[in-house]
Amino acid sequence: MENLNQWTGSKKTWHYLLLIILSLLILGPFIIGLWTSLLPTADISSGKLFIDNISLDNYWAALTQTPIIRYLFNSLFISILTMICQVFFCSLAAYAFVFIDFKYRNFYFYLVLSTMMLPFEAEVIPNFQTIKSLGLLNSYLGMVIPFMTSAFGIFMLRQSFMQMPYELKEAADVEGLSHWQFYLKGALPYSKLSIYTLAAYSFLSAWNQYLWPLLTTFSDDYRPVQVGLRELQSQETFNNWGMIQASAAIIVIPTLIVLYFGQHYFKSGLNEGAVK
Amino acid sequence: MEEENNLLDAKKQNILENSKKSILANKISVKKNDKFYALLFLGPSLLLLILFIFYPMLKTIYLSLFLTNGNGQNTVFVGLENYVSLLTSSTYLASLGSTFVYVIGVSVLTIFLGLLLASTASKNVRGSVFFRTIFSSTMGVSISVSAIFWLFIFNPSIGILNQVAAFFHLPILNWSTDPNLAMISVIISTVWMNLGFAFLVLFSAFESLPLSLYEETAIEGVGPVYRFMHVTIPLISPTLFFVSIITLIESFKSFGLIDLMTAGGPNNATNMLVYQIYQNAFLNGNYSQASAESVILTIIIAILTFIQFKYLEKKVSY
C-alpha cells in the first residue's frame, strides 16, 4: 500500500512538472512581451533585460503618442456592430429554415451552406470594387457589411432551433402568435446558449479581421487595432520596441477578458460543431 | 343521470370540435403569411450572401479568363491561359510548395501539441482549472499581437532567442534573412496562436469520454501509451478530424501573420497563396492573375470543406 502511494505521489509530481513546463511554453511569449513592455527601449536594444529601469513609461507613450485608443475604439465598434448584425440576421434566417414552410426550402439551405466552401480571401477583388462603388471605402459600414451574416451562424442556430419541442410551436400557433412574435418570445429565449456562442464567436472573428480592413481603410479614423499595429510598426516607431510591446499588451488585455468570460460559450459552441 | 352524462359528452365534443376549427383557422392564417415571412426572415441573409459571396465568386472566375491592363480593365479574353501560365510559373509553384510546407507544419504541430495539452489537462488534479485557463489563453491573442510578440523573440539583433543563444555561446541564427528559419518562425507563431482553440476543442472531447472505460482498461493492465493510441484516439477521432480540417483550412487562408512578420520574404520563402493574391491584385494591379490564383485557392478550400461536410453528414442529420 505504501509503495502504491509513493508511486502515485511521484507520478503526480511528474504530472505537475509537465503542466508547469507546458504553461511556461504557452505563457512565454506573453511574459516576454509584457516584461519588455516595462523596459526602456535603449535597455532592450542593448540586451539589458533586468529589473533596473522598470516603469510604465512605454504605456504612457503608447497612449499619448499613438492613436491606439482610437484604434481600440474602432475595433470595438466594428466588432459589436458585426456581432449584433450576425446574431440578428443569422437567427432570422435559421428561424425561416426551421419554422416556416416555403418552396425550395432545402435548396436555399444548401445554397447558404455552400458559401462555407468559398473563402472570403479569394473574393477580395470584386468585393473591394463593390464597396468602392457603394462609396463605403474607409468607413465602418464598409468593414461590417460583408460580415453581417454567415453560413456558420445560420447553420448553428438552425441546429439549435431544431431541438425545440414541436409542441411549443403548436401552442404558439393555437395562441395565434405570428412568426415574428414566436421568434422573439419562443425561439430566441430557447436558444440563448447558441445565441451567446454566436455572439462571442462573431465578436472575436470581427476583432481578428486583418486582410479586409487592410484593404479598405486609409485613415486612423477608421483603422481597427490589427491594422493599426501594422501602421505603428511601419512608421519610425518600429525601432521603439518598448512602446510597440506596450501597444500589443494594451490590445491583448480586452480580448483576454472577453475570452475568460466567454470561455464556457465557446466550448459549448465548438462542441455543437465538433462532437455531434 | 345518463342524460346528463350524454349532455356533458356532447358539450365536450362541441368544445373539442370548436377548438379544432380554431386551430385549423389559425394554421391557415399562418400559412397564408408564410411566404411573406420567409422573404422577410431569409431575405436579408440571402441578399448579403449573394452580393458578397456568390457574385464575387462568379466575377473572380470571369476576371480570371481575361487579361487586365494597367488600369485594371479587362482587355483580351484568353480562356484558361492565366491558369496555364500560373501552373507553369516557377514562382507560383514555389508559392504553392511553401504553402503546403506551412500548412502541413502548422497542422501537424497544432494537433500534436493540442493533444498533449488536452490530455495533460484532462487529469483531475488540484489546480487543473487554472492550467486549463492558461492553455486556452492564446485564443484571445489576435494576429497583430502574436506577430509583435514573436517578432521580438525572433529579432536577429535584439531578440530574446539570440540573446539567450549568445549567453550560452550557441550560434546566432538569422531568423529574418534565412528562408528556412523565416518559415519556421511563421509556423511557430501560427501554431502558438492556434493552440488555444485546438486545446479547447480537444479538451472537451476528452472530458466527454466515459470514465468507466479508463477503469476497465486500467484493470486489464494496459499501459498508458497503448491506451492512449488504441482507446482514447479512436474515441475522440470525430473531434480530432474536426480540428485537423479546420486547422488545414485556416492555414491555407493565412495572411495576417505573414504580412506582419515576413511580408512574403526573404526571397519569397513565405510568399503563400493569399499573400500572392494580395500582392498581385493590390500591389501590382494584375487582377487577372490574382483572380486565377483566387480560383485555385477556392478549389483547394472547397475540396477540404466538402470532405468536412461529408464527414459531418454521418454525424449530424441535416
Automatic annotation (TrEMBL), chain B:
InterPro entries: ABC_transporter_permease, MetI-like, MetI-like_sf. SUPFAM superfamilies: MalF N-terminal region-like, MetI-like. GO terms for cellular component: plasma membrane. GO terms for biological process: transmembrane transport. The chain crosses the membrane at residues 36-58, 92-117, 129-152, 182-206, 226-249, 290-312. Residues 96-308 form the ABC transmembrane type-1 domain. Gene3D superfamilies: MetI-like. PROSITE patterns: ABC_TM1. It is a multi-pass membrane protein. Its main location: membrane. Pfam families: BPD_transp_1. It is found in: Cell membrane. Keywords: Cell membrane, Membrane, Transmembrane, Transmembrane helix, Transport. Belongs to the binding-protein-dependent transport system permease family. This is Carbohydrate ABC transporter membrane protein 1, CUT1 family.
